[in-house]
Write a structure and sequence with these properties.
CATH topology of the largest domain in chain A: Dihydrodipicolinate Reductase, domain 2
Structural class of chain A: alpha/beta
Distance between the termini of chain A: 35 Å
Strand content of chain A: 15-25%
Number of domains of chain A: 2
Radius of gyration of chain A: 20 Å
Number of helices of chain A: 12
Strand order of the largest sheet of chain A: 3-2-1-4-5-7-6
Order of helices and strands of chain A: EHEHEEHHEHHEHEHEHEHEEHEEEH
Number of strands of chain A: 14
Shape of chain A: globular
Oligomer: homotetramer
CATH architecture of the largest domain in chain A: 2-Layer Sandwich
Helix content of chain A: 25-40%
Largest interface: A-C, 46 and 46 residues
CATH class of the largest domain in chain A: Alpha Beta
Chain lengths: ~350, ~350, ~350, ~350
């Protein structure tokens, strides 16, 4: 068994990763840290784990050495304490945004301050298997992905790879997202009577995950816009694109199938019958799938990707990376297909 | 114009009352107080009032004399400061629970401390027009009603009046309620990812509004149980009752029609066709109606009442009482019928 | 009193118009037709009107002459039977898409068949007061608006008028809409277990309302894309635009205030504090407001409009037009401000 | 591998059972029948199974012999065609209500017609492991359970077993349920704009599952009442009970722990801290747990059970029984813990 601990395990992404690890055949969860929840059973915070583990939260000061350390801390903490964590484990998977960007200028522009550990930054691989699988295999340091970045990247990947994005026209990704993206800190904005039924323009411009899309796909005229809707889990990216010239449906099929051939967690969804003809995030709650579909008229292409933001957008992809880091079967522990109806 | 101010107007019930008063032909809202929101436009807290009023919140220390004062303060504040408020206005409508119970022992048992102003308590009329209309007409001091108490009282009134409640059997009122009942203070329990989709046993036993039902209907074997569901406004009371002997549907119709004859805001809803055969709270959002229906088999009777907890359960009934206090037409300012579909 | 009847009054838009007309001081509703529901009380289909009217549906064959006829029929019916209806009333308000487009080629391209009554089409004024008020005043024949077209048109109007749309870049309107837009015919796609919680790419390309935006604003590189979410009423248009050059916030404020100055039902919403900093459709349920806001970075502008699709997007604007047609105060019968919390 | 086919597999319970069986280590799904969907891929109806199986629906006429047949047909079909099905398999698991009641008079009273196959009825074991485990082990014919019956039975089991139900007082079970209980046939009542946000008194009296509770627990003064709320999966039973005399919390703990000791899928949930202090159905979506909790004051006891109606209330318990029938580990294929947040 590979020993693993989660630092900052009282949040939603940490909790989801814990759920997955507890049922994984090759991992043994040793500790879960939380300063605020220390001494409490983890199931008081993650009630779905009642009866599944007797683990209690511990303060990070009592962290023991393990094979792999998962960091699920607020932005900025991982990079500031990275030496401390590297002392405890030879392998690190960081779920935060601290080590996601290679370009340190872009990092500073996006996050408003210089990177706290630039020398460490180069050691981390961006944890999206669909673009970086070979570097992730056997890697020691891996950065998790941004949820909205992942939905955007997977929507755009087939078009970018097949040269179907006109450099003269913008790429506009309009994302619809759930409340779990905001984390577990209550506020008036997240208070149920206020948050319920919203169609809230959360980040019409300047969403931070845009930087991950620019960098992964090498695009510079790509724009993310995020609207929060009444849903807890799930994100749908609707990417509005233009091809250099009119494109036929069969060429798009070829591009999408080509981009995702052999990918265990990407399905191309574009049907003529049934209720679910395009990707639908609710079908993916708890699942690691990213469903990707498209539609086109003339040069205009709408590419659509649905994910569970806590799974393919965070903990699920993280575990997929951990499997790659350690040479396990990539899909291990990620078999839940999602529910219907839901 | 009758001048009116709202003390503690940043909460949900106060905001709803403000909405109603701003469109009322005979009331002029002079001030709305809030310590925390003082100097802000009321529409920053009650965003539906954007463009409808230029009022700003003021601290209660700057309260001026008016014809009628509406108190919408947290529990215990109205009774402790009642002399101060009575100096400002000859008429008071208090939305809190402070003056709802005549029986001071019941008050102490329910709220865990002796009443702060027992001499004032006797001056207040319980503000439910369906039971106390004559005392409310021209009254100077009126207490608002509990939302769940009102749904329960109106469900049970026809049976209690017609002698259709077997004293040997319990009356069990199972209420399904929305999140606005909890007020506007955020907490982890009201955080959208936690509060969404719940069927939360909020008060399986010992709900405080039970005291108002015992007192208004003179029952001593009546029990309220409250479950919170994923809805912002609305309450449905399902009252499980037993008649002394088997009862026919036509006798129930007679009891219900008799109890609510001439009531401008109670409709008896029991249909054989259509989608909405029983009372449905969503149809009442923003409306002052209480819809009441029933079903029976043998001696068992299920009586059902739907309300908007902020309207018939709070601000709407309060305005109905204010109309009665001042001799206005009882329905003035309460004409909104509710929406469909919704 | 001006007499009015509604043809095809069992649908959602017809029902909403009926609700408004029943409370209007100058209109008297004479008949409401429905072939399928004939002889039933209107409140069996529109349950919010229980106790508000004793009207029953009648078949359209028994339609009597009135001052004004409102048509709320499925697409294609109004134009095919327009002579029949014009015999019954000197004024007609048609809620369907039959008479919305001046350009008959665009009509044929959009709706897939030639217009059934081109000679009548020229008599109809497009019923958006914010663009056509003067023609609507005293008009005899008025066409209602498309809900998604209206949200898009009002989002884009300030930019189009102020010359802030770069003709070299596309305008992309990404709409998030509720289930009432689909009407009241059940299907598996609208079945609650299937329709609940969706983020359904309903019309990624080729939404018919695009034609109304092209025509009203004179744009030819504008694209609508519609996603259905878990909401009954409401539409939010997120319009992604590019200005010819970098634009300052104060110039945008000037453009928006200029476009909507004096408009009784458009509010510019762009706040730095509070929970609702941009337009929010849930606050508009039942209200005739269109709330419009914006955000910008460099040349990129995101313009946002929220409406209740059944009100400002259909019945509300229709009544606003009827007030103009008959010389009544434009806001009569449209005073409901919307609710909060909701 | 044990071969298994599902007859009537296009419905929600059949689809859920298919999801479970596809991931079960010892079952091989051979056929899934549906007359209406025959020749279509099962994932067009159960979209969560996209990429998980290449099975297509077949008509039941082409049913082949297998080790075990699961019947998921509408009420009445299984009993009328039982000989036909028994020819195809030595073991049958029937999800319908046809073989749930031992007492044929109760059956006729409940379902309005005599039983179609009384001689077969005696061969079927009621498939609730928590009451009938020993008979289920190795059984050939097992009947599935009613969802609302199961939530009620598990809420009441500890009290019934411990003699804590006063025979002089009624037991009233008030259930809150989701829309998936109604199956996958669309109607106006299930149309999203109508069904959304409801608190619909679906069966205030005379719910058919009451018969299963009477029979399993031997009670004759027990009453079910069902209210539909805005949720797809999940049922919460709130059982209002009276003890013969005042009861202490520790005695209730003893009764609940005693009743469910060693039960792999029942958890007693009653906490003093955290957001989820009582059973909560949303935490169980996709899981086979039944969570049971309680509260008491004096002689009054409120017992609460949450389940996923398609899992512990149907397909999950069915698979639990199939594991028992075949001597597999009882929990096999039922390991999913449920999600949080959700």
């Amino acid at each position: 068994m590979t020993t693993v601990s989660i630092v900052g395990g009282s949040g939603y992404a940490g909790g989801e990763l814990l759920r997955l690890l507890l049922d994984h055949p090759h991992f043994e969860v040793v500790q879960v840290t939380s300063e605020r929840q220390a001494t409490r059973f983890v199931h008081t915070v993650h009630p779905n784990l009642r009866g599944r583990t007797k683990l209690k939260f511990v303060p990070s000061a009592s962290l023991e050495s393990v094979d792999l350390l998962c960091l699920a801390l607020p932005h900025g903490h991982a990079s500031k304490r990275i030496d401390e964590f590297a002392d405890k484990a030879g392998r690190i998977l960081d779920l935060s945004a601290d080590f996601r960007l290679d370009d340190l200028e872009r990092y500073e522009r996006t996050y408003g301050e210089p990177h706290a550990a630039p020398e460490w930054n180069t050691k981390f691989v961006y944890g999206l298997p669909e673009t970086n699988r070979s570097q992730l295999s056997g890697a020691s340091y891996v950065s998790g992905v941004g949820c909205n970045a992942t939905a955007s990247n997977l929507a755009l990947l087939p078009l970018a790879r097949a040269g179907l994005l006109d450099p003269e026209r913008p790429v506009l990704v309009d994302l619809k997202v759930g409340s779990s993206e905001g984390g577990n800190k209550p506020s008036l904005a997240s208070h149920h009577p206020e948050r319920s039924a919203v169609v809230r323009s959360y980040a019409p411009v300047k969403h931070r995950h845009q930087a991950e899309v620019e960098e992964q796909l090498g695009l510079d005229d790509v724009w993310l816009s995020v609207t929060s809707i009444d849903m807890v889990r799930g994100a749908l990216a609707t990417a509005h694109c233009w091809a250099p010239e009119e494109v036929e449906t069969k060429d798009l099929w070829k591009a999408y199938r080509g981009a995702f051939k052999g990918e265990p967690f990407v399905r191309v969804v574009k049907d003529r019958v049934g209720v679910y003809r395009y990707p639908e995030p609710k079908l993916l709650w708890g699942s690691n799938y990213a469903d990707v579909g498209f539609e086109a008229e003339g040069r205009r292409i709408v590419s659509i990707c649905a994910i569970d933001n806590l799974m393919k957008g965070a903990a699920g992809t993280a575990l997929q990376c951990m499997n790659l880091m350690l040479g396990f079967e990539e899909t291990l522990g990620l078999g839940f297909p999602g529910l219907h109806p839901i």
